[in-house]
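G., the chain you wanted modeled:
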Amino acid sequence: MSACVPTRAADPNRTERTHPPHSPPPTGPRRFRIAGADVSASIAVFLIALPLSLGIALATGAPLQAGLVAAAVGGLVAGRLGGSPLQVSGPAAGLTVVTADLIQRYGWRTTCAITVLAGLAQLGLGCLRVARGALAVSPAIVHGMLAGIGVTIAVAQLHIVLGGTPQSSVPDNLRALPAQLAQMRPASVSVSALTLALLLLWPRLPGRAGRLLRKIPAALIAVAGATAAAALAGLRLPKVDLPSWSNHALAGLPEGPVLGLIAAVLTTTLVCSVQSLLGAVAVDKLVAGRPGLPAGVGRSDLDRELLGQGAANIVSGSLGGLPIAGVAVRTTANVNAGAVSRNSTMLHGVLVVIATLLMVPLLELIPLASLAALVMSVGIQMVSLNHIRTVTRHREVWVYAVTTLGVVSLGVLQGVALGIAMAVAVALHRLTRTRITHEEREGVHHVHVRGQLTFLAVPRLSRALHLVPHGADTVVELDGSFMDHAAYETLQDWQKTHTAQGGTVEITGRHPGTRISEPSTVADCRCRPWTAWRNHQCEGPQSTPPPEKNEDGSDGPEPDPAGSGRGHELARGISAFQRNTAPLVRSELARLAREGQRPSQLFLTCADSRLVTSMITSSGPGDLFVVRNVGNLVPRPGEESGDDSVAAAIEYAVDVLRVRSITVCGHSGCGAMQALLNSEPGGTRTPLERWLRHGRPSVERMADGSRPWGSLAGRAPEDPVERLCLINVVQQLEHLRAHDSVARALEEGTLELHGMYFHVGEAESYLLTDIEEGGAFDRVREADLTA
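Predicted structure as tokens:
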């Protein structure tokens, strides 16, 4: 029985709507979800931001509610629009001095207007995509600025800690300090001392209970503890006073001299932008060291971050809040608490809003002395000893010191300007600091140039060259990375004149005739010595090796009979070594020739041509005893292999050379491991297959389901080949322990074994840290394989 289905006559004027035959059913609106890690991280950040926001507002002289407004806007606006998902923005200690000066000079309503204008300037800079340019500021200037601000904050808040009122500048505060010490209030000092003690001791609580308690922020514990102690003791102290929101002052039209207002806007824009952008870069470093983040958390978009900060400052200034920037303390807490998206930053802003509306009675119990002690500790921490050591190591301590003193004595903008001037002076000094010496040794005149060879050094260079007698043999040693046109012409003119008079000139350290300040037809290859003869990092017309003299004295290499152009590559590399590298290492090799080899370790690795042991270990002649074979294999002792070379090398290294460690190094993309995976046991026995059978235990180890497969910097291996490469390192270390000489040295405690993995594509080294987990490899941080 058939069913009759009515049909509709086709209408040529009607367009039929068709649907894909397998289109998915319509779905409802996506539900907004917040990860649990973001919720817990937002709570941790909120507990830190609440007391700090009040303290920073107190330090600036602004209404205390302004700090809460800035914290909420920083979380909601900058958190939503910024380009660094995990950076937390809000009122920052680095802006305290700038804001306090603006409030004192122009008043609060004009300061809010300046914040709005600074936000507009940030929007303009973000649209121009110049955010990366802010990173050109020397870190020594930034660290010096923050240190100067920290000193200013600490000295000012010390007066409140003692029960007094701070002055307008650091010199005035220092002059008033003796009188303040004579009139200090014991109640304020005791509350402040308790706050500082809790800040110092809480992160150091010992034991298992201490680990649990340390999850609560020390800043919250310090302020809450001091508040509770003051309430229980009945101390009469100035406390937080949050006026009604109906009386909250908003931004007004800026009033004051135009040039002064422009300078104030530029200063606020500079400090906010630089601090936020440097914070975003720091967040990328923190995130890179934290495995397991979702793919959505990528590197910071600095231009978008600048736009987000600008929008946040516009909103904060309009609502009567403090200027906003990225805050290092809250950002670090956010990352360490496990945040995985920008939802944590935004949720912390929501919590600040809730606290502002519902917790006013509790907030008004906080003594101002406790907040002052909290902010003073933040100011002290801004003077970082680690930063001082870093700038000292890079010989920029004068830039740091001048910037710090300038900020302390003159102000932020003036101090930064002095720091920039000092940085330029240091750079010019380094550029012009050229030492030129002349001496005669065994009848050969040596002219040694240390430093950059610019036009400023031409008079001294000419004077030293004219000390060389006519017809003498001369060696000119150029020890620098820059030579401008004037110095090049001087050197070339003298060389032509000297050789025309019968003398000889050998220029070492740089190929003679290579121009640095302008293009040249000769090679300008900047390859390192280990790639000089391959030239696979040099591009363009300048990648051709420099022409050499033929035996008949003519220019250029002799013709290649095969026509391939590659017959003399090795010869050119040897020639480059003799010309550039040999003079630098000759004395060291002569010492090694006299004393014999004394390597510190045996380095056993694959014969892969991409693995350059001296490069990845930063080692030199005499440091490593290297054994290379296909697959970095260590045959078990006693097996029939027909080749005892590996065992002989191990015995010689341990018993004769007395090496202190043995490292087995595998690498990514190993062809031997790929061949092992594809091979069938009992197949045709070629020499390669006979050798690779020593890797079969590694394959069996990988197939053993009872053993873990290990990890690489916290992640699983990308494919079976990488998994086998990692497991093979662990397996070969076990084979090493079976050798008598190794077992004996391990028992005596004179030998250590290490596993290493080198990822060729990433140029990243990993060390085996946990063999019990099947081979857990972590990135090499400060390991010195040549020690």
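The longest strand covers residues 752-759.

Shout if anything looks off.
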